[in-house]
Amino acid sequence: MATTPIPVAAGLSAGGSQGNYRFALTALTSLFFMWGFITCLNDILIPYLKMLFDLSYTQAMLIQFCFFGAYFIVSVPAGMLVSKIGYKSGIVTGLLIAGAGCLLFVPAAAMHVYAMFLLALFVLASGITILQVAANPYVSVLGQPETASSRLTMTQAFNSLGTTVAPFFGAWLIFGGLDAPEPVPGTVTESTVQLPYLILAASLVLLAIIFAWLKLPAMGKKDPAEALPLGGEAWKQRHLMLGALGIFVYVGAEVGIGSFLVSYLSMPEIGGMSKGAASHYIAWYFGGAMVGRFIGAVVMQKVNAGKVLAFNAICAVLLLALTILSSGKLAMWSLLLVGLCNSIMFPTIFSLAIAGLKQYTSQGSGILCLAIVGGAILPLVQGLLADSMGVQLAFILPLLCYIYIAFYGLNGCKPRTVVSPDFAVKEPL
């Protein structure tokens, strides 16, 4: 998110040895890889289902609407569930539900009903939401608080590794690989999509069994009411509210660009390649994010996070302007390089938005988690623009999103001291 939702229960004190922490973090890294892999498959599923059901761009974007809409609907109940059963049990539950969503692709393909595919995606995303609500704060508390942002950025680099590998897997199984001829609308079959999701279902169930067996630090159980992002002081914090909007537009921009990559690169005036070949280039987009996150995990220990965020956002604006105004290889690579700019944005916006919230950190994280719905709404709007003015000009929407993110990094992320005597916000280091 390629996009990773935010924990709804953060700021817990950790217990256990550093050895246990390292082992637990290693195990959790596999989860970040898996959900990055699954989320990226949507970008290949969109052109496949678009041809299968002869959809408009707007109708095809309902795939992302259902997938990321689940984050908005399920995140709060997921936070309450994880607060009751703990992080480890939450991870196992999320893996099993995600596996069930993958299995639903089999009857969806057999019935040849687009709505069934959307239902399967919603169930799959619901499981991933529970998984991430448990795993993200788990990473945050397994170690020193001062390095939580760096740890989260590092583990999300493996999320990007999953998004980098997924295009090759999906293109091979769904479109037949790099050298396969372009599928003709009307000849695409439903059965092609069954095998990839059966493999994923088996992998998720296997991971659930492994995590149920692993001895991990017991954390995460707390009062479920603390996870509810409803009312209270957190809503009064300017930097948090602007950060929530930042998460909204960032996820919307990243998902929107990824959703249109295959269609855009296969256009004659841009890449002029088959959809199978274009699918492989998604790896460049998310691979850039992976490389950038490894670099960012080191750089942001020395450089002000807000300035790094603004710099990356301005670079993304310039690259999108170039892809809109040009054609051919220049337009193609300008868009793909936006992935490198995306690298540190999500964890940086998250960290800046909850800076200084103290006892309201859990509530603030819940508010940010709701903002993930940008991945459902903005790609749908971009689909409407693509149907009315063309795919290339529709990239004006993510360009505007990155302009806002640049503002947030330079100014909007600065906390303001509030009146409440028990809630003093300090400037982040």
From TrEMBL:
Keywords: Cell inner membrane, Cell membrane, Membrane, Sugar transport, Transmembrane, Transmembrane helix, Transport. Pfam families: MFS_1. It is a multi-pass membrane protein. It comes from Arsukibacterium indicum. It is found in: Cell inner membrane. This is Sugar MFS transporter. The chain crosses the membrane at residues 23-49, 61-82, 89-108, 114-135, 156-175, 195-214, 240-262, 282-301, 308-325, 331-355, 367-385, 391-410. Its main location: membrane. It comes from the Bacteria. InterPro entries: Glc/Gal_transptr_bac, MFS, MFS_TsgA-like.
